[in-house]
TrEMBL record:
Record family assignment: Belongs to the 5'-nucleotidase family.
Gene Ontology annotations for the cellular component aspect, listed alphabetically: outer membrane-bounded periplasmic space
Protein name (database record): Bifunctional metallophosphatase/5'-nucleotidase
Coiled coil: none
Calcineurin-like phosphoesterase domain sequence ranges: 6-205
InterPro entries cross-referenced by the UniProt entry: 5'-Nucleotdase_C (IPR008334), 5'-Nucleotdase_C_sf (IPR036907), 5_nucleotidase/apyrase (IPR006179), Calcineurin-like_PHP (IPR004843), Metallo-depent_PP-like (IPR029052), Pesterase_YunD (IPR011240)
Organism: Gracilibacillus salitolerans
Keywords of the record: Hydrolase, Nucleotide-binding, Signal
Domain 5'-Nucleotidase C-terminal: 290-426
Keyword Glycoprotein: no
GO terms of molecular function: 5'-nucleotidase activity; nucleotide binding; UDP-sugar diphosphatase activity
Highest taxon listed in the record's lineage: Bacteria
Amino acid sequence: MIEHIHFYYCNDLHSHFDQWPNIVHYFNKKKKQHAQADEQSWRIDIGDHVDRFHPIAEAYNGKANVELLNDAGFDFATIGNNEGITLEHEHLYHLYDQANFQVSCGNLKPVNKEKPVWLQNSIKIQTKENLIIKLFGLTAPFNAFYHPLGWHVESPYDYLQREINVLKKDADILIFLSHLGFSEDQLIAERYPEIDIIIGGHTHHLLKNGEKIHNTLLTAAGKHGKYVGEVHIDWDHHLNKIVDKQAYTVETEHLSQDQETVNKLAQMNDAAQKLLKKPVTYIENSLIVDWFEQTPIIESLTNKLKDWTKADISMLNAGILLESIEEGYVTYGDIHRICPHPINPCTVKLRGIEILEVVRGAHDEALMHFELKGFGFRGKVLGKFIFSGIDIDTEVDEAGIEHVQHVTYNGHELEHDKIYTFATADMFTFGRMFPEIARSTTKEFYLPEFMRDLLADALKS
């Protein structure tokens, strides 16, 4: 006898709800089809469903996302870094209190506190034919961010080395819900053939027809709900093993919509806008935002960052502010709209010579016009880089290219070997935009504050 088992999933939605009604309609249709064929199916979220760039996620601290997953009939979930490090401790601790689905993230735990009741190491399900399927989730160990928020994330490899035999021991099928990224999934598939299927996320990779490494099937469905994924397993009860497993992704844009979900999202958005209308301050004159100019508002925010972190020097990009601010009352919704990024302030220790390299790199026209995707940035382009605490003399050559001539701190040239505290947005500690910042071994991240919290303070003063 062959038992047919089906899983449907989404990953890295990031609160992009445009296709969510399409996803719900498709999952409902598929569940009905499988039920008519007397087959079982389940729905899974692989993390980063929450992203506080969206007013709904911001106003409800992620709980509206959980309500949407409940309404959509999801069965299981794991946690992404957007749930883990963009919510304050208590908001994450109680995020899934009302979830109608089970949550597994085996390598996450609170510091000096009992685990929340919803947090499971693994989830066991038994099919109607008594097949045992075990699912377990792991998330990326960004402990430089988790620790200030009162959480610890164990290395996934330490966790697997200790737990893999226990996980597999009483399971016919073992499924890993991974918010680690594609390269990590590939490595884990190489090291742990006990895992039958890895459903992945985090790096927004799209595996349209899955990928097999030895006997492990890997799958992932991109980002922002543009695709959803499905996994189909055939188990032979006579041979007592999987005889076929397939993974596919489906583009969602042209699927039919679930009208109840359309209506629910509209209601949630209206309610969120009302919650975010709380006034923060009053300004007497409009503040212009220009991504390629040093305007008073970005200058004020850069100064605030330096003072708030007690740094010697600070740097921000003008593209971090998306819209100008009109005179009159400024609400939290305005500030969220203008600076929606889940980006935290941070400081690094840099030598003077390294700061000189950062300043020179910041004057690269190509970098200013770079359309950054990821690292928490939710804007269009990086824009002009603004500094506080130093004076920069530049010269424009015949080709119109600006060159840095002198950089002074308190009226004196930067000392090449002196250590300075340098404040910036945490996104510059990643990637290759500023190697000097990314390489620093003395990073300090300020959580749970976002850059928009500093913007609110700057506007008040």
